[in-house]
């Protein structure tokens, strides 16, 4: 076996997979650039560390379970009048996760609640936080079945270990008494260890209605609101304002 292949095997046995795959390039480049031994070792280590970070980040994003990617950089602040650029910057800095703060984004459909929630979650994954995304409906289903269903249990274990839990679409569907109580238990359990982002189309006064229990609604909101910023997102639906029409686009193209 030639020397390079021996090095590759040794790198693999040390789990240095990036080094194994790029050792020839690293050596060729070092010879070309005539760098010192110290610089060479530094380049090998940096490349391996960079590769591992990128891999871990990709895994965090995959495990978070986002339905699709939405990025903060694509969030148009000039369209969303409910958030100042200063608030947006503060949210993007993610210190609120370290402080165990919760966020509630409320408002009508299409104003960007889910975009902002996923964007923040995605960015948190990039910054090394463990994140879980779920809709309220799927969360309730998992809490109900975690004792009997392996996949629900795995999802709930992940939720409990997350730094940030995004619960999308709270209040869209009514929740029965058992589900409401289980949700309350979860929120209590996560308090101060996991930040929660909630998106909802309901005002606080309407929580009693969809939970079908005013006392429970008060208890849940009490837990959630202790360390919490609530952002009421009003305005027009981005979807309606930026409606894309296949027919118009085609007519334009055809010069009609
Ligand atoms: P909501 O959850 O409030 O119903 P979404 O976040 O799903 O609304 O937004 C609907 C669509 O409009 C998505 O494609 C989203 O990316 C886009 N959108 C909403 N608000 C903005 C915004 N301020 N800037 C860019 N895109 C936006
Ligand atoms: Mg939404």
Brief sketch in words of this structure:
The protein has 256 residues and is an alpha/beta fold. It has 13 helices and 5 strands. It is elongated.
Task: Record keyword descriptors for this entry.
5-stranded parallel beta sheet, 13 helices, 58% helix, elongated, binds magnesium ion
Can you walk through the features of this model?
- This protein is α/β, with parallel strands linked by helices and 256 residues long.
- The chain contains 13 helices and 5 strands.
- The protein has helices at 3-13, 17-33, 37-64, 85-93, 95-98, 113-126, 136-145, 150-161, 177-190, 207-211, 214-225, 238-241, 246-253, and strands at 102-106, 131-135, 164-170, 195-200, 228-232.
- Adenosine-5'-diphosphate (ADP) binds at residues 70, 74-76, 79-80, 109-115, 199, 238-239.
């Amino acid at each position: 076996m030639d020397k390079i292949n021996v090095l590759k095997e040794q790198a693999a046995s040390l789990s240095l997979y990036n080094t194994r795959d790029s050792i020839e390039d690293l050596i060729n480049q070092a010879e070309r650039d005539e760098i010192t031994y110290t610089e060479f070792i530094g380049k090998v280590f940096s490349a391996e560390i960079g590769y591992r970070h990128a891999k871990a980040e990709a895994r965090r994003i995959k495990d978070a379970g986002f339905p699709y990617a939405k990025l903060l950089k694509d969030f148009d602040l000039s369209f969303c009048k409910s958030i100042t650029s200063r608030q947006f910057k503060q949210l993007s800095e993610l210190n609120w996760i370290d402080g165990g703060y919760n966020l509630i984004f409320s408002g009508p459909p299409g104003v960007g609640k889910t975009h902002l929630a996923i964007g923040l979650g995605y960015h948190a994954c990039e910054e090394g936080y463990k994140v879980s995304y779920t809709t309220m409906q799927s969360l309730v289903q998992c809490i109900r079945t975690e004792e009997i269903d392996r996949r629900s249990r795995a999802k709930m274990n992940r939720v409990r270990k997350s730094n940030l839990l995004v619960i999308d679409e709270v209040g869209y569907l009514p929740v029965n008494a058992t589900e409401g109580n289980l949700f309350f238990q979860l929120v209590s359990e996560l308090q101060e260890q996991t930040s929660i982002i909630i998106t909802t189309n309901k005002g606080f006064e309407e929580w009693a209605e969809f939970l079908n229990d005013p006392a429970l609604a008060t208890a849940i909101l009490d837990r959630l609101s202790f360390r919490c910023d609530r952002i009421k997102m009003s305005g027009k639906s981005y979807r309606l304002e930026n409606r894309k029409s296949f027919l118009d686009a085609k007519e334009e193209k055809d010069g009609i």
